[in-house]
Amino acid sequence: MTKNEKQYASKGRIMFQDNVLSLLGSLMAILLVRWLSDPIPGYTWLLLKWLGAGLVGTIIGMLVTGSHKNVKTYISYTSAMKTSWTLLIKTIFLVVVMLVGFVKLPSISLAAMALLADFIASIFFVLYLRFSLTSLSRETGRVKDQVGKLTALVMGTGRAAVDLADEAAASGRYDVVGFLSADPAMSGMLIGNRMVYKCGNESEMKGIMQRLGGVDCILFTKDPDDGFPKDGAQEKDDPKNTVAQRDGMSLVGHVIKRGFDVILSGILLLIFSPVMLVCALAVKNEDGGPALYSQERMGRNGKPFLIYKFRSMRINAENGKPALYSGDDDERLTRVGKFLRQHHLDELPQLWNVFRGDMSFIGYRPERQFYIDQIMEKNPRYQYLYQIRPGVTSYATLYNGYTDTLEKMLTRLDLDLYYLRNHSVMFDVKVLWMTFLNIMTGKKF
């Protein structure tokens, strides 16, 4: 947890926010009553009394359950249950004020409808919108905390190297702690407030990184003079060189993207819930095994998370040993599973991963640590993908498809790094649209 990426939301903000959202639910309910009934005498006064009673009921519920305390900035079962109890207490309070005659509705049926609508609307607004707002706040803090996240050294001491160091520091992505130079005369000198270290080959570079500790990357300029001498050192374009790849999306872009993910995934979870139920029943009915399949993948900041899918293979298909999916002819596929894979329905549960914040709609496809270790041996630049969330789909998937070999994974990595450097809100919209077209036209990817 980073300094700006807070685990808990402010108690005062949550109390204010939940009361406003609860009032919005009450307003929707009383407007529904007006729409479904004949004109009600003194309706404005009725509306004000209903909203006032709802506000008092919400505050009482909060004080009883403590639902405004220790609210995490991600989905928490405990927090959701406390909030549900708060809103149930609010509904009970509304029943009481109607029984004592403070609020009078034309009929019992309208009263029951108003209470039900109030409870459902309040649940939606408070839980869904609260999570959306706190998630956006958390995303803003997370991106702000990228400042100094990657500790870097710059290769070279010329004007291009100094400019690169200043640009990297100003970008908010790097903490540039020094320069590397092949010239022994430069060793120990200061450029600005940054030390110059003697570095004539790869071995010396690794030694400096180990000595300083916590150095994440080396930044190279395009100037051929800012590099190792021509005495057998690594070339700058060798993938084993740790050349930093920057996240190209702005702070505003990240906040917009996360807002889009939360809103769209929430809507799609509601729309596709009947389809997901049918898929789950079909998988369960075929062989009696579990409908859902979860597997640990590595996500943003290298943190593991559980990715969810509808199970498409036989139970214990891997027999404890990781194996890559080999296409529609994979003999481990069940009959239902093959259909789900062909139509990409097996990935619908990942909408929950997007809503939770484990994933985004567009990113890079997350892998297991087993395969990441193999990729890192060939190309350590994979680590730079950890700056962003993995995605349900990716720019690389459009052009490289799903990967079933290490070679394809390495090809995909180049495309993923291109996405990392260049992604934007419009880039994501383009990838999402092209993915949608591929699914609609039946194109395999």
Distance between the termini: 36 Å
Q: Going across the major beta sheet, what is the strand order?
A: 3-4-2-1-5
Structural class of the helix and strand makeup?
Answer: alpha/beta
Note the total helix count: 14
SSE sequence, one letter per element: HHHHEHEEEHEHHEEHHEHEHHH
Which descriptor suits the 3D outline? globular
Concise account of the structure shown:
Helix content is about 50%, strand content about 10%.
Could you please describe the fold and organization of this structure?
With 445 residues, the chain is of the alpha/beta class. Helices cover 52% and strands 10% of the residues. The strands form three sheets. Strands 3-4-2-1-5 form a five-stranded mixed sheet. A two-stranded antiparallel ribbon has the order 6-7. 32% of the residues are buried.
Entry keywords:
52% helix, five-stranded mixed β-sheet, 445 residues, Rossmann fold, 9 strands, two-stranded antiparallel ribbon, single chain
